[in-house]
Amino acid sequence: MKVDQTKPLEYSTEQNNLNILGFWMFLGAEIMLFATLFASYFTLEGRTGSGPSGSEIFEIMPVIFETFILLTSSFTIGLGVHAMRLMNKKATIAFFSITLLLGLAFVGFEVVEFFTYIEEGAALQTSAFTSILLSTLGTHGAHVTFGLFWGLFILIQIKKRGLTPETANKSFIFSLYWHFLDVVWIFIFSFVYLKGMM
Amino acid sequence: MDFFDRFAIPHPSPVIYASMVAITLTLVAIVAGVTYTKKWGYLWREWLTTVDHKRIGMMYLISALLMLFRGGADAIMMRAQTALPENTLLDSQHYNEIFTTHGVVMIIFMAMAFIMALMNFVVPLQIGARDVAFPRLNALSFWLYFWGAMLFNISFVIGGSPDAGWTSYFPLAGNEFSQSVGTNYYMIAIQIAGLGTLITGINFIVTILKMRAPGMTLMKMPMFTWSALITNLIIVFAFPVLTVALAMGTIDRLFGGNFFTTTDGGMDMLWANLFWVWGHPEVYILILPAFGIYSEIIPTFARRNLYGYKSMVASIVLISVLSFVVWVHHFFTMGQGAMVNSIFSITTMAIAIPTGIKIFNWLFTLWKGKITITVPMLYSLGFIPIFTIGGVTGVMLGMSAADYQYHNTMFLVAHFHLVIIPGVVFAMLAGLTYWWPKMFGFMLNERIGKLSFWLISIGTCVAFFPMFISGLDGQARRMYTYSEATGFGIWNMISFVGAIMLAAGFVTIVYNIYYSTRYASRDISSDPWDARSLEWATHTPVPDYNFAITPQVNSSEAFWDSKKNGHKLFPGEYKEIHMPNNSGVPFIMSAIFFVLGFALVFSIWILAVIALLGIFACLAHRSFEQDHGYHIPVEEVKETEEKLGGARQ
Fold first, then answer.
1. CB-side exposure of B411: number of CA atoms within 13 Å?
2. String of DSSP letters for B504-531
3. Minimal Cα–Cα distance from A104 to chain B, Å?
4. Among A25, A32, A43, whose Cβ lies nearest the Cβ of B206?
5. In this complex, is the C-beta atom of B241 within 8 Å of any C-beta atom belonging to chain A?
6. Residues 249 to 268 of B: which have CB under 8 A from any A CB?
7. Calpha distance B103→B67 (Å, rounded)
8. Residues in B touching A126 (Cβ below 8 Å)
9. Is B645 exposed, middle or buried (0-12, 13-18, 19+ CB in 10 A)?
10. Contact B331, B272 (CB under 8 A)
11. Predicted-assembly ipTM surpassing the 0.85 threshold
């Protein structure tokens, strides 16, 4: 394996470059996935049948919390990648751990939110609106949950193997994933919750 | 008892029971055969765990041919049923199941696999690469496709086939009107195979963008590689839409969601839109690689470089953009109003412009060329007129006002078969014959090949031209029978004769493969067609590492230049070559996907959870795995090269 010392660790081998470009392509597919969900959401938004509408079930405070937590986690993972570039293993692990804990808190809030909706009579089966609402939020939530495990595995690898071209590459790609989920959340926050509450 | 009821077929017939027996016997025969010849180890080490793009291509090829015959059997049954008025060969339910599975199998499991087969085999060779960017993901793609196809194909013996058409329009495909598990199979099997396709898309984009031989700029790439690049871009942007649509359909069917229902705010037209937002680009995912293949074959056998290379590239790019903005033409008559129809009518007809440019470029390539008539060339020449007829009738259908006459009639069926068959099937057979010597080390017999060509091309015309007439006369598609007074009888009978010819053509192809395997000469050079692109510059059979020395490219036809103008293609010395290790995980993980799919189809939740955990375990295993592949030492490379007929320097 040829390691190019002039480049940051995550870009230092040929395979690393391929991995990162491949992941950007994957993110392109993810953009299409969420775009389709959003398009469907806007189509079905008003089709509430006999169930509740968005303004009846959305509450601003939990959503503000969730947003705050997720945005912070995106910031801390940025710090983690920065620490990784400085080859500071301890700080990298610390910031990645904080990111994952924040992600866990976010998922926790979301689970509570889902139970509240179902209690209020807005289940997956209630209407077209609740179906697409819970599917869109659920897809994002499932991505975050998947990310928690993925991130945890990478964390263990950094701890055991140190900052190598391989672990750095994985961490960097994971950070791209995490930032992407944050961007999607900003859209959810603006166009699902804020718009729905207006 | 309840347990067996769930897996029973809802509409049994003797044919299905006979198939069950046949499937069981075949499986037993395969298992017994492999055990008897002690080939399990070989099968596992060399094929099931392989990450070599060439072998994956071959496995795609075999799967595609098998699916061609499965879909073909459906087609023959359909044509036989409608050959006579008031025929009672099949009942309406059975007919519904057959046209549904014919469509799905042919598009998703045959045509896509055929394209993947040629793309996998040819693209890395054409760009002078050692393998694809992510060899292991490539294996995963294939096995996901394979197990998805298997899941779909067991539907007709366990639980019942899908019967709501290959478009699976809701509310027809909803629980209310499709009560058997058939449509569950549709939703989940396509989802699994689609995941594989998406991974291929990502893999090949990165491969083509990053792994080209030095000197091969984008505008020096062979046309087939260009078409593969654009096709994969379409895949990455179109398949996620299908993923979402299928997931929504699954939620509706399994969990009582309300996306596409007619009550509680559900919107059935959303399915139609999402399906065709994927479905129309899908048409171009099928046709663009075919265009690429013709652009390789026509210059080779006209002994001239491709006319208008730049305009060829530009028109593929333009087609790929337009492919995303025409989907509404699939439902002009479903009430979106004159303005919307007009816009989509115009974008639809606009596709004829870049396509026309390509047709003229091929004709100009032929003009003043020294044409040799070989089997691949015959398919390419046959493609031009038949495809043009299919294409022009497409423009007719694209006129939204006139579409009220053609919509949902046999006219449409004739149109799309007359573009898909010459466009995809001819191209794939041409590509198959053309690249066969590179794949397997011998040529297919030309005389039998020509017979297949004539049977298939005449069969296509005989089978589908009459449908233009019966369609304009008002014969609706998907009708399982009609009365004698309609006068459709004669046209359907002619179609049936054409279908038999087509079937005979495909049988001769199989015979050709058998015959050539036995009798064809193994003593062929690495470049039997005197071709122009890089895949012919390496040995036949292609060594594991493709090229001992990475080729140096300086024009769009570097290999041709090296033969005619003395361009040095392989500069430098042998170096040790890095290769990826084989892995069983892609196969195992995809097999678990099959289990997951089966569990979901029948709502067996415990099994589904276990399967999900299994998939998760595979992913976790991959995350922690450290696998840097291995190196082939210089001496071994030298030895292999000399054994294959002279070292390349």
1. 20
2. HHHHHHHHHHHHHHHHS-S---S-TT--
3. 19
4. A25
5. yes
6. 251-252, 255-259, 261, 263-267
7. 11
8. 258, 264
9. exposed
10. yes
11. yes
A131 close to A162: Cβ distance less than 8 angstroms: no
- The position carrying tokens 């040819």 is B122
Reference B265, options A45, A196, A198, A122; nearest CA is A45
A15 CB-side CA count, 13 A: 19
Domain annotation covers residue A92: yes
- Please name the amino acid found at residue A30: E
CB contacts of B240 in chain A (<8 Å) are 29-30, 32-33, 36
pLDDT 10s digits, B228-245:
999 999 999 999 999 999
Tell whether A159 is within 8 A of chain B (Cβ).
Answer: no
Give which of B407, B512, B503 is closest to B462, Cα–Cα: B503
User: Would you call A124 and B248 a contact, using CB atoms and an 8 Å cutoff?
Assistant: no
Given a contact cutoff of 8 angstroms between Cβ atoms, the answer to whether A18 and B137 are in contact is no
Instruction: Please write the tens of the pLDDT for every residue from B168-188.
Output: 999 999 998 998 899 999 999
CA distance A162 to B252: 47
Identify the residue whose tokens are 């710090």. A79
Interface touch B624/A153, C-beta < 8 Å: yes
Q: B579 — phi, psi (to 5°)?
A: -130, 150
CA distance B240 to chain A (A): 5
Interface test with B, best of A11, A17, A18, A149 (most B CBs within 10 A): A18
- Residue B285 CA to residue B290 CA, distance in Å, equals 9
Q: Which of A45, A131, A160, A171 to mutate to test the interface with B (most CBs of B within 10 A)?
A: A131
CATH number of the domain that A104 lies in? 1.20.120.80
Nearest CA in chain B to A50: B264
Q: What is the C-alpha to C-alpha distance for residues B553 and B215, in angstroms, rounded to an integer?
A: 5
Question: How many domains, in total, are found in chain A?
Answer: 1
> How many whole angstroms separate alpha carbon B442 and alpha carbon B432?
12
Say which residue the tokens 């005619």 belong to. Answer: B564
User: From CA B453, how far away is CA B389, in angstroms rounded?
Assistant: 18
Quick check: A197 contacting B, CB < 8 Å? Answer: no
Q: What domain range includes position A179? A: 62-197
Residues of B in contact with A125 (CB under 8 A): 255-258
Q: What is the DSSP letter of B371?
A: -
pTM, to two decimals: 0.95
Q: List all residues 6 or more positions away from A193 whose beta carbon is below 8 Å from its beta carbon.
A: A54, A58, A60, A63
Write the pLDDT tens digit of every residue in A13-54.
889 999 999 999 999 999 999 999 999 999 999 999 899 999
Helix, strand, coil in percent for chain B, rounding step 5? 70, 0, 30
Q: Looking at residue B479, what is its pLDDT?
A: 92
User: Residue A2 above 80 pLDDT?
Assistant: no
User: What are the two backbone dihedrals, phi and then psi, of residue B577, each rounded to the nearest 5 degrees?
Assistant: -115, 130
Residue A145 near residue A114, CB atoms below 8 Å = no
Torsion of CA A33, A39, A42, A45, to 10 degrees: -50
Residue B646, pLDDT score: 66
Are A150 and B257 an interchain contact pair (Cβ–Cβ within 8 Å)?
A: no
Could you tell me the end-to-end alpha-carbon distance of chain A, in angstroms, rounded to an integer? 56
- A16 inside domain: no
Q: Based on the number of CB atoms within 10 Å of its own CB, is A5 exposed (0-12), middle (13-18) or buried (19 or more)?
A: exposed
Q: Nearest CA to CA, how far is A17 from chain B (Å)? A: 9
Q: Is residue A123 part of a domain?
A: yes
**Neighboring chain A residues of B620 at a CB cutoff of 8 Å:** 149, 153
Asked if A125's CB is within 8 angstroms of B210's CB, the reply is no
Report if residue A25 sits inside a domain: no
Residue A111 is encoded by which pair of tokens? Answer: 């689970």
Joined together, the tokens standing for residue B567 give 């361009």
Neighboring chain B residues of A157 at a CB cutoff of 8 Å: 623-624
